[in-house]
């Protein structure tokens, strides 16, 4: 990746760098989606996960890169430190990944001074990217002991020459993905507008009620409330709140995948599909 401002940039094998950084990549890993933070998926579970979504890992990684704008950058501490100080410095940074390409990461000379100092002596770094927005969805996932899907990119960072800088406007089993596969993977149009789309749906009480209804009608799951946490060209994933039988009174949040019969080209197509699903349920109840 490359970083801008103090910028680093381009990729040979997949490893990480940020938008004031340049990324030379050797591997890209996708951490398991929505699994308890302490658990790792076995090979059989990984295969089921792939079968459920129908998306290759490389495409899921690329969608995550294209659909997000913030990530956690980690660089190796270079200054003398006490025994209780961490060996790495980590913070949230902004980046851009046009059409899912390797990211350009912006490092601010003031707030990201520590990263810049570390990278001057050791260019290896990592960037973890995942759905950190909307916060309401992330909070629900964490409350249920789940973690949003995320991609971890490892890279050597090189400062991007000023002549290569460009302004871009606003428009726990790990899998290693070959950089060639990532370069050739498709990027869902839905991934680019993912946060705005999910935010608009989840803030609409009527649409959330519809999502709960879909869980009840199509999956026979007694969902009382639901949030959409992911959407792609082959379907969408919902986090549904279901009653518990243990007497604790705490809600149980379960993940439900809706695999569609046709591919979705964009956000408008998803909205149309949701409308059609509601009409289908109403007609079935007549």
From TrEMBL:
Q: Which domain of life is it from?
A: Eukaryota
Q: What is this protein called?
A: DUF2470 domain-containing protein
Source species of the chain: [Myrmecia] bisecta
Give the lineage. Answer: Eukaryota, Viridiplantae, Chlorophyta, core chlorophytes, Trebouxiophyceae
